[in-house]
């Protein structure tokens, strides 16, 4: 079988409002949202914020913004170096 297949299976996407390829980004987003929608609130907080019981998205966002510049300065990670 060739990957991706020349005639991939289709599935109905509620986000797109039509059938989409199960190999498409549209289907990937559909599955990600379905997974998040099915999580219990405590698990959803952990998934979105990395902290159990977090309800302050603004505070979590500010922490993420503070970390981002440090990540940029360190440069891209090299798979060979393990950094």
- Helix content range of the residues, please? 40-55%
How far apart are the termini? 36 Å
Strand order of the largest sheet: 1-2
* Number of distinct beta strands: 2
- Main β sheet profile: 2 strands, antiparallel
Radius of gyration: 18 Å
Q: Report the uncertain regions.
A: 67-76
- The topology string of helices and strands comes to EEHHH
Structural domain count: 2
Determine the strand fraction and express it as a percent band.
Answer: 5-15%
Query: Which outline best applies?
Result: elongated
Structure description:
With 83 residues, the chain is mainly alpha-helical. The protein has two domains: 1-38, no CATH class; 40-76, no CATH class. It contains three helices and two strands. The protein has helices at residues 25-37, 41-49, 57-74; strands spanning 10-13, 18-21. It has a two-stranded antiparallel ribbon with strand order 1-2. The two termini are 36 Å apart. The model is unreliable at 67-76 (pLDDT under 50).
């Amino acid at each position: 079988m060739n990957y991706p297949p020349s005639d991939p299976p289709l599935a109905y996407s509620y986000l797109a409002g039509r059938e989409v390829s199960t190999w498409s980004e549209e289907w990937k987003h559909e599955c990600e949202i379905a997974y998040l929608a099915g999580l219990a609130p405590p698990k959803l907080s952990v998934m979105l914020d990395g902290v159990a019981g977090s309800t302050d998205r603004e505070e979590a966002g500010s922490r993420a913004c503070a970390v981002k510049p440090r990540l940029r300065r360190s440069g891209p990670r090299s798979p060979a170096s393990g950094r």
